[in-house]
C-alpha cells in the first residue's frame, strides 16, 4: 500500500508515521488491548476496598487471585485443568477425526454424499446440547457421554469445513496435475491436500473452540472434577470468586490450546497470502 | 510430426467448437493459431493436451495416438496456474518429480536461468509479477522436455515490453529443446515474431481457414520489410476469415482444410 503519500489522513496505522507505527507495533498494540480490562479491574478493586461496593457477588480481582492461588497451591487446580483438557482432547480427536474422514469421503464420492449428507445436515440442525439426556441414558454419567458430546460438537464444523474445502478446490489446479499425469494418489497428495489445508485448519480451530464450549456443558451436567465442576461447585456453595477463577482458567486454557494449534499448523500454510496476525 | 485427423469437438450442450480439423505439423515447427474469440483455439489445445476427448477424429504424435495427457506434450495455460503452496523452484520442478533429486534441481536451476528468474527460485508465486509468473509456467513446461509445447495466449495479459522479453526467453528455450510449438495468439505481431506458420481459424463451427507460411530468418526484426509483408498477409487472411467462406475462398479449397 502506498496510499500514505496520496491520502495521508486515511492511511492505515501500519503505513502512518514511523513514530505511531512504533507505538502501536507488536508489544505496544498488545499493551493497548490490556488497558481496558486493567483499568476496569483496578477501579473495581478500589471501589470494593474503599467500601463503595461490597463485592459479595462480584469479588474484586485480589479475591479472585487469592482463590486461584489457593486452588493452585493445593494442587487441586491442575487436577481440574487436566480433567478438562483430557475430555476436550479426546472429544476433539474423535470429532475432528470423524469430520475429516467423513468430509473427505462425501466430498470425493458423490453417491456417498447423496446418501449421508442430507441426514448429517439434518442432525447438524439439532442443537448439540439436546443430545445430552440421550447420551446420559446411553452412556451413563461418567466420561463417555461427555467425550461423546464434545465429539459431536467438534464433528460438524470440521465435517462441513473439510467437505466444503474439497468441493471448492480449483479445477484449474487439478488440470495442472493431469497435464503432468499424476496418479490419483499423487493428485490427492500433491494438489488436493495442500489446497484444502488452509480451510481445514480453520475448521479445526472452530472445532476446538466448540470443544471448549461443549466441555463446559458436559461438566455442568455432572462431574466430580474439571473446570466445569469448579463452576457448579462455586454456584452451589456460593463462591463467586471460585466461579470467576474457573472462568479465567477456561479463558487461559482455551486460548493456549488455540495458540498451540495455530503454532503447530502455521508452518504448513506459510505460503498463504493472509495477514496471519489478525487471526 | 503432430497429426490431427478430421478432429471434431461438440460439447455436451451441442456447441460445435471444432469440426473436421486436419493438420500436420512437422517436428520443431512453430505454428501460431489466430482467430476471433470462440473459434475453438482453446478447445483444440485441450484436445491435443489430452485434457478433453475429441467427439471424432484422432491425434497422433510421431504415429503414436494421443488419447490422454502425454509425457511428450506440455501445455502453458493462459493464466499461469502456479501452485500457490510451492515456491518458484517447486513449481518449475512440479512435473519432473520422478527424477532423482539432484538432476531435478539442476534442470530447475537451468530453466530458471533461461527465463531470467534464477534469483527468484525461493519466492512464492504471489510475490511475482504477472510476467514473472508466466515465465515460471513456461519454465515448468520446458523442464519436462516436451516434444510438443502448446501455449494458450500465454502473453495476452502482459504489456508489449514484457511480451517482447518473453518472446526472447521462449525462443531461447525453444532453440535448446526444439519442441513443436502451437501458440494461440490474438496478436499478429506475436505470430510474426515467433512462428514459422500462421493458421487463421474461423468460428461456428471452429475450423482452420488459411495457412500462411512465414519464411523469415531468426532473430526477427519486426520493422524489416519481410516482417511487414508477413503481417499484411496475415491481416488479409484474418479479413477473409470474417467473410462468408464460399465467397472468400477458391472453390477447390472450400470443402475442407488440410494443412
Ligand atoms: N466446456 C464447454 N462447454 C460448452 N461449450 C464450451 C465449453 N468450452 C468452450 N465452449 C464453447 O466452444 C466454443 C469454442 O471455445 P474456445 O474456448 O475453444 O474458444 P477460443 O477460440 O479459445 O476463444 P477465446 O479466444 O475467447 O479464448 C465457444 O463457442 C465456447 O462457448
Ligand atoms: Mg481460449
TrEMBL record, chain A:
<feature type="transmembrane region" description="Helical">
    <location>
        <begin position="243"/>
        <end position="264"/>
    </location>
</feature>
<keyword id="KW-0813">Transport</keyword>
<dbReference type="Pfam" id="PF00528">
    <property type="entry name" value="BPD_transp_1"/>
</dbReference>
<dbReference type="InterPro" id="IPR000515">
    <property type="entry name" value="MetI-like"/>
</dbReference>
<keyword id="KW-1003">Cell membrane</keyword>
<comment type="similarity">
    <text>Belongs to the binding-protein-dependent transport system permease family.</text>
</comment>
<feature type="transmembrane region" description="Helical">
    <location>
        <begin position="147"/>
        <end position="167"/>
    </location>
</feature>
<keyword id="KW-1133">Transmembrane helix</keyword>
<feature type="transmembrane region" description="Helical">
    <location>
        <begin position="210"/>
        <end position="231"/>
    </location>
</feature>
<feature type="transmembrane region" description="Helical">
    <location>
        <begin position="93"/>
        <end position="115"/>
    </location>
</feature>
<feature type="domain" description="ABC transmembrane type-1">
    <location>
        <begin position="81"/>
        <end position="265"/>
    </location>
</feature>
<protein>
    <submittedName>
        <fullName>Aliphatic sulfonates transport permease protein SsuC</fullName>
    </submittedName>
</protein>
<feature type="transmembrane region" description="Helical">
    <location>
        <begin position="122"/>
        <end position="141"/>
    </location>
</feature>
<keyword id="KW-0472">Membrane</keyword>
<keyword id="KW-0812">Transmembrane</keyword>
<feature type="transmembrane region" description="Helical">
    <location>
        <begin position="30"/>
        <end position="52"/>
    </location>
</feature>
<dbReference type="InterPro" id="IPR035906">
    <property type="entry name" value="MetI-like_sf"/>
</dbReference>
Automatic annotation (TrEMBL), chain B:
<dbReference type="InterPro" id="IPR050166">
    <property type="entry name" value="ABC_transporter_ATP-bind"/>
</dbReference>
<dbReference type="InterPro" id="IPR003439">
    <property type="entry name" value="ABC_transporter-like_ATP-bd"/>
</dbReference>
<dbReference type="InterPro" id="IPR003593">
    <property type="entry name" value="AAA+_ATPase"/>
</dbReference>
<dbReference type="Pfam" id="PF00005">
    <property type="entry name" value="ABC_tran"/>
</dbReference>
<feature type="domain" description="ABC transporter">
    <location>
        <begin position="2"/>
        <end position="228"/>
    </location>
</feature>
<feature type="compositionally biased region" description="Basic and acidic residues">
    <location>
        <begin position="240"/>
        <end position="249"/>
    </location>
</feature>
<keyword id="KW-0547">Nucleotide-binding</keyword>
<dbReference type="InterPro" id="IPR017871">
    <property type="entry name" value="ABC_transporter-like_CS"/>
</dbReference>
<dbReference type="GO" id="GO:0005524">
    <property type="term" value="F:ATP binding"/>
</dbReference>
<keyword id="KW-0813">Transport</keyword>
<keyword id="KW-0067">ATP-binding</keyword>
<protein>
    <submittedName>
        <fullName>Aliphatic sulfonates import ATP-binding protein SsuB</fullName>
    </submittedName>
</protein>
<comment type="similarity">
    <text>Belongs to the ABC transporter superfamily.</text>
</comment>
<feature type="region of interest" description="Disordered">
    <location>
        <begin position="218"/>
        <end position="259"/>
    </location>
</feature>
<dbReference type="InterPro" id="IPR027417">
    <property type="entry name" value="P-loop_NTPase"/>
</dbReference>
